[in-house]
Amino acid sequence: MPTPDYRVLIVGLDGATFDLMLPWIDEGLLPNLARILRSGAKSPLESTVPPITPCAWSSFMTGKNPGKHGLFDFIEPHGEHGFRFTNASFRDGETLWGCLSRHGRRVGVVNVPMTFPPEPVNGFLISGLDTPHDLSPFMYPVEIRSELKQAGIRYRIDQQHLGNMRTDARRRAQLADIRECEEARTAALQRLAEERPCDFRMIVFGSTDQVQHHFWHFMDAEHDKHDPAGAAEFGNAIRDTYIHVDEQLGALLDDCDDDTIVIVMSDHGFGPMSNVRVRLNQILAEAGLLKFEQGSAPSKLKQSLASWLDRMLRSTLSSDAKRRIAGMLPRLRTWFETLDEAKIDWSQTTAYVNEAYRSSPAIWLNRLQELTETEADELRDRIEEIMLTLVDPQTGEPVMSSLERPQELYHGPHAGRAPDLLPSWWRDGFLLDQSSPASPGKPHVERSTAPLEGGVEFAASHRLDGVLMMSGGPIHPEFSFDGAKIVDVTPTVLYLMGLPIPDDMDGRVLVEAIDPEFIASNPIRFEAADDDAAYRDELDDASASFTEDESELIARRLQALGYIK
Looking at the 3D structure of the chain, how many domains does it have? Predict the structure, then answer.
């Protein structure tokens, strides 16, 4: 049997789900994914809890649970009561491409989320979603930017229309923009890998995630906010996006030889959201765990005016106009959002939710209060009991099936940085809404009857199970299995490339997908990990790499994606 010394290509389809992919493969719409399926192995790929981009992709690239790498979300608490945006510098632990580079393997990485600022590698790296702007230093080495420009490849981070899809014309523009961005990413990887041959290549296509978030209600006739009129034109937008990324996969497969193992994966799955809206801070306030500041009449008027002006600007300005205004007044967006937030009296608050961040609602205990672990556990128990009593006003069924406790799920030096409770939105399909202390009587849970706000409100969101497909080398053909987790991909890649696995990884080699004779001839090897405790101690200081203006740019991108209000 040959030794494990294969080249590897990983193609990430952000948010891809077998629920959609397999039927379209059966219909013959995705021929290149069908090639991988026929010649290789597949499994659902269990994501992290919560199943969100920063947490999941970081667990993939390190092979570690979030308690070890320390990245739980796009935001984390900072200062007394504030939050800051995270990026790759917040992550603890060696990445897959860092490990490969250390062993002398050549790598090429394009658009993997949470890779900004780009780390020096033995090859090239173009960072992904956490890049503040197209003008940021997001390429390593720096000269590849000019190489791509000279080759006529217009590589962009930003997409111009996503947060402003109020009309069919803007939706068409966004779909065209997404296709253009993905084609540029494919061309960039091909061009750079041609000039710098790689042992390992990876690219992530984000379009599957973005289009599913914002077009699912056109496709799904059972969706609570199904738009039958829009479905006439946009009902196949998600299907066509999968077809497009399948074409990009085909172009990359044409560059592979017989010694290349191809892996297709997603960081999580996807599914529809309901029209159930929950105001968590109001619930905590009613329970006596949170207190809102009593705003003055002028302050309430400012909040109302800011909210009205914000909606007006979003619905009337073009994306180019909004970009120009944001460039002239980079913190104008933040000013409006601050005025429109419900203020919290921190001196009398024990638990709270950052309601400006809508995509992954998390409940935090006030870290400035001196609570024993017993007291903290009792508070978590109390909050969980309250939340589990919430019912859907239409069906009478519970809104939340569970509240997860990351400290019990994860282990490692950073487990204490996780939120205290995670309502199971990825399982139950509800969305967070803004609490309204200035408008008493608003229900804690209600069904939203307003049409879906294009580009801002999610029609669908993440599910726990993503996709994993592997083909080539000793991978079993036409083989299905279960039990793969996102932390397992990196140790499996290292093994197939003939390298030892750092012994601090939580993932395992997916031996069930590999020829047993190959496993018997090539025992799995391990190496001692570099346990850099001093680095962890300095992580908080070293990771504050976003400037105020960069944070504003990140906020605008996450807002355009629908992650924050």
Answer: 2
